Amino acid sequence: MFKNLVTDVFFDLDHTLWDFEKNSALTFKKIFEQNGVNVVLSDFLKVYIPINLQYWKLYREERVTKAELRYQRLKKAFDSLGVYLADDSINILSEDYIEHLSTFNHIFPGTIEILDYLKPNYRLHIITNGFEEIQEKKLRTSNIRDYFEVIVNSEMAGVKKPDPKIFQLALNRAQVEPESALMIGDSLEADIIGAKNLGIHVLHFNSHQEPRHEVSDIIHHLDEIKSFL
């Protein structure tokens, strides 16, 4: 579908190539053991995951700071479980989480295969709202850094997806026009609608099993990209 139109493919990183939920769960398992936090991991993750997504949305909308995001997502999760932790303990867990998260390297099934498939014919790039200090580590730890030419993050851009400025910065750095670019990501709001508003072709990798929509084509496995490119 995009085969004769696109020269450059932009990927989101977390929840699209890098398996955030799996790596996050392993990180929490490690830091809870290290810090003697006595909660059932599955119970914690059940409440934490939606809270984390909610706070990332607030962060994208400039309604909370990075520090508030990192603290409140943990505080709210423990409160939901009726577990009291002092602020100092929450802050230590927050720092440990950021320190260890990028040491895990699980990527979605088919990631290497689709990057190998695309690399000979397209220039590949990353646009991410993730924190600058760990996104590069994630790419290197999971052995996919060398596939990508331009990597733009929200701290570098000064704005977060879906703000058009971050997409425009990525296009400028890649020296490509919107009509020759394709954005692939998991967030309908941040990745798909954000890129589409700038005239970029879009493909929604629905890793959260969200309801069907008419905004763009939807895939559920990275291998399906081959049907479009």
UniProtKB/TrEMBL annotation:
One Pfam family named in its UniProt record: HAD_2
InterPro entries per UniProt: HAD-like_sf (IPR036412), HAD-SF_hydro_IA (IPR006439), HAD-SF_hydro_IA_YjjG/PynA (IPR011951), HAD_2 (IPR041492), HAD_sf (IPR023214), PGP-like_dom2 (IPR023198), Pyrimidine_5'-ntase_YjjG (IPR052550)
Signal peptide start and end residues: none
Superkingdom of source: Bacteria
Protein name: YjjG family noncanonical pyrimidine nucleotidase
UniProt source species: Croceitalea rosinachiae
